[in-house]
Amino acid sequence: MDLSVRKADLEVDKPVIIKTLFHHLTPDSNEERFDWLYTKNPFGPALVWLGVDKDNGTVFGVASAFPRRVFVNGTIEDGWVLGDFCIHERYRSLGPAIQLQRACLAVINSRNSGMWYDFPSSSMMAIYQRLRVPFSKISVLRLAKPIRVDRKVSAYIKVPFLASGATSIANFVLKRLQRAKFLKHKDVTVDVYADECGEEFTQLSSKVGQQHEVCLERSATYLNWRYVRNPLCRYVLITARRGPSLRAYAVCRSTEEDMTVVDIFGYEDVTVIQALLDYVTEHSRVRGMMTLSIPLVENHPWRSLLQQLGFEVREARPFVLGGAGLAGSSDAGRRWFIVDGDRDG
């Protein structure tokens, strides 16, 4: 096979990018997704590379990088989140995949563009290990707490009548315990935010973001693009205030039975964060959710606080970060404010 990699033209190659992603990565790949994710990003257009088999013209893979603005040690820098990586099934050996991802990282690193990061699958980690580029590898942890116990009870009690009774009692006790906490925060106003994000979100991002070693810039423009106008998923934004002042917020996404906080951000004020999460818990319960999850990197500065508030570590998956002088050194004691919503889309 005579394989090559070339940079894609977002206008000319749009159909083949959409088609390749649809067949080899996600059934959500369509023109609406492409326009939103690749061309309407407020930080600029995506970079895309195509792997091509020159013997027959087959596009064997796609690799993409999406621009972000990132606080790195208090200074705003350009950054990239890598994603939409896929390989045609006939080419799924390490060689073509490494060739494609190497071309992507070579361009990004040559730009001196701050930093890049990725939420790779386990199989993608094998590619990173072979690339021989410096990066830091840690884990994204899913912190979770139960809201209802229906699934757990039914797994242990097979008699429907007994399971129903046990479930009702356990859910009642769990609700009373969590509801009691929810009622304590009289000085904090928490509510669903139904409008587009305004300047107060940009100001919060600026004041809080520069306090952390690595933290995505969450301007109002970015939040509106990423969550409010996202054509792929419906999100709920919940804000916490002291008086008129925005102090923190959470962005939530639900499935049939589970709620995930994909982004939680604000001042590290225990009372405010607890009030915010108590509200999210109650909001999830009334919608019949079973669990509430918050995925974040293991060195996130709020990890211990969230565990104190009743969230427990469940499974872990990989996360890698390179560039900006951050890669290859010890990760002990570092503070990376990175959550699940910081991925490509």
CATH topology of the largest domain: Aminopeptidase
Q: Quick one: overall form?
A: globular
Ranges where pLDDT stays below 50 over 5 or more residues in a row are: none
Listing every helix as H and every strand as E from the N terminus to the C terminus, the arrangement reads EHHEEEHEHEHHEHEHEEEHEHEE
Strand content: 25-35%
Assembly status: single chain
Number of extended strands: 14
Summing up helix and strand content along with how strands pair, one would put the structural category as alpha+beta
CATH architecture of the largest domain: 3-Layer(aba) Sandwich
What number of domains? Answer: 2
What's the gyration radius in Å?
A: 22 Å
Give the CA-CA distance, first to last residue.
33 Å
Structure characterization notes:
Helices cover 34% and strands 32% of the residues. The chain has 2 domains: 3-133, Gcn5-related N-acetyltransferase (GNAT) (Aminopeptidase), CATH 3.40.630; 142-318 and 332-342, Gcn5-related N-acetyltransferase (GNAT) (Aminopeptidase, 3-Layer(aba) Sandwich). The protein is built from 10 helices and 14 strands. The protein is of the alpha+beta class and 345 residues long. It is globular, with a radius of gyration of 22 Å. Strands 1, 2, 3, 4, 5, 6, 7, 8, 9, 10, 11, 12, 13 and 14 form a 14-stranded mixed sheet that branches. The two termini are 33 Å apart. The mean pLDDT is 87.
